[in-house]
Amino acid sequence: MAEFNEFKFIEIASKIFKTTKKSVIAGAGDDDCAVVNIGEKFVVLTTDNLHEKADFPAGMLPEEMGHMALAVNLSDLAGTGAKPEFFLFDITLREGMTEDFFIKVLRGMAKLAKRYDVAIVGGDIDLGDELFITGFAAGIADRYILQSGAKPGENIYLTDMTGKAQLSLEMLFSGKDREEIPYASKLFTPVPRVEEGIVASRYAGAMTDISDSLAISLNLISRKSGVRMDIFERDISLDHLTEFVDKRKALELFLYAGGDYELIFTAEESNIGYRIGEVRKGKGVYFVKEDGDREKIEFRGYSHF
Amino acid sequence: MAEFNEFKFIEIASKIFKTTKKSVIAGAGDDDCAVVNIGEKFVVLTTDNLHEKADFPAGMLPEEMGHMALAVNLSDLAGTGAKPEFFLFDITLREGMTEDFFIKVLRGMAKLAKRYDVAIVGGDIDLGDELFITGFAAGIADRYILQSGAKPGENIYLTDMTGKAQLSLEMLFSGKDREEIPYASKLFTPVPRVEEGIVASRYAGAMTDISDSLAISLNLISRKSGVRMDIFERDISLDHLTEFVDKRKALELFLYAGGDYELIFTAEESNIGYRIGEVRKGKGVYFVKEDGDREKIEFRGYSHF
């Protein structure tokens, strides 16, 4: 949603909602999720809003819409290392949408919820001009990881190479059927990296999920942690993309496309994820080519259709 | 939103989302809010969705929209006796809505949040065809009160006589300015009964807030508690309405109009609220006239414009 300068609006909101409440560890604008204390527990709260025109690709099934609405929220929680526990949703149906459609959306949600033992405990149902599904998820973290915790000397890990969702979307746009596109499941039923987030939270410095783009997530970690981040060409793989597009386009998708819902985290070492770079003193995010040349990785991305 | 049989859809959802998760005390469809255990605490979760066409009366200021979006969620929490703690929101702006508009909406939220020491800890911002504000609130209850706890022998209490919001709305529709209508604040800046909910939660049997109508809230308590509820004509006052409309219309507004955000609760006795009736063995909700005649109070209401 960087299209209309969402980040400027987030900045405005975080100023207006600045809080001194003691139970708030990370509030509005501090991170991708809120982290609060309830009793002795660290509770992570997040919300994500999907709407038909921007977020549901053509041909998406109602079950997949339900899946997606939950998945994007679980991905947010995964980015802090929280175990997801509870989910609520608001659904705005268009006039004429059937009970059958509604049931299918809910079943898609229920199936994914079951996989992670998430209880869907409430919601609100409404009628409007466009289909909206807004989700709200709460999780519990033994150790929560923010975007601000990266330290020079750490390595940078990525749970899977990015660009697959947008590649698939563009192939869909170009007229291909969903059966013909290579990573349909990344686009229609992305799997949030819940287990990986919990494992990485035991040792990660900084972590976040990637919804807008790898570039945006890296830049957020760099800014909030006050560090430089170097991504090495020699450590990444674009094979999953160069099978379908040229190398230049592949790199663009890898860095700047969204919708993959992978996790990026920093750690001294990790048994999970692919090491793609290093945290250094300084600022900015760079792509270090095999010949040693460095290029800035910009703060930009796209994840909506 | 009883218009499109929201209650049928809620029933469908509660079947699909039935859970055996131990930390869930009240899940989807059980009550107006969800109640869950986090550590040793009872945490109450709710969500409410407002959209421009159905929920914001003409002439409503952006600050009031922000106020309203938070107020309706705090009212839900108040209905369980929870102290509100955290709030998140999703706002969908229409193309062309200014930064200034956005800031005003947020300030309206922030002002009400401050009054109850609620921290607004996150949100999501989007563009769409209609202005939407979805809120999620979390509160903590020492003793939570559900709709299912009414017991024969208890009295029925109401925090204030209902019908004011809809009366004001209808006067607005009839061409009056907002300065001329009698209960403008009920319509534009309803105050959630947070303190009253906390006080009543110490001794109430059943409780809920009234968003759709007094009749719907009474019927929900009656059904879920398995009790009959008698409302006595001699115990209610319609003076606040008969000043403007005839007695028949006043009673219709009192019982069936929504938007007042009062609390209704049952208790042996209470220092707060007006006693308007009694809980009996049996089923159904009745209006007992001064002459002793009884009329069924139906399961219906309206609260949207």
Give an account of the 3D structure.
2 copies of one chain form a homodimer. Chain A is 32% helix and 27% strand. Chain A is globular, with a radius of gyration of 19 Å. In chain A, β1 and β2 (34-38) form a beta hairpin. In chain A, α3 (62-78) packs parallel to α7. The first copy, chain A, has a 7-stranded mixed beta sheet with strand order 8-10-7-11-9-12-13. The model of chain A has no long low-confidence stretch (mean pLDDT 94). With 305 residues, chain A is an alpha+beta fold. At the A-B interface, α1, β2, β3, β4 and α4 of A face α1, β2, β3, β4 and α4 of B.
How are strands sequenced across the largest beta sheet of chain A?
8-10-7-11-9-12-13
> What's the helical proportion of residues of chain A?
25-40%
CATH C-level label of the largest domain in chain A: Alpha Beta
Largest sheet of chain A: 7 strands, mixed
Number of helices of chain A: 10
Largest interface: A-B, 66 and 66 residues
Mean pLDDT of chain A: 94
| Radius of gyration of chain A using CA atoms only | 19 Å
**Total number of strands of chain A:** 13
> What percent strand of chain A?
25-35%
Kindly report the name of the CATH homologous superfamily of the largest domain in chain A: PurM-like C-terminal domain
Overall morphology of chain A? globular
What layout of secondary structure does this protein have?
2 copies of one chain form a homodimer.
Chain A: H1 6-16, E1 24-26, E2 34-38, E3 41-51, H2 52-55, H3 62-78, E4 83-94, H4 99-115, E5 119-128, E6 132-141, E7 155-158, H5 164-173, H6 184-188, H7 194-201, E8 207-209, H8 214-225, E9 228-232, H9 239-242, H10 247-256, E10 263-267, E11 274-280, E12 285-288, E13 294-296
Parallel strand pairs in A: 4-5, 9-12
Antiparallel strand pairs in A: 1-2, 2-3, 3-6, 4-6, 7-10, 7-11, 8-10, 9-11, 12-13
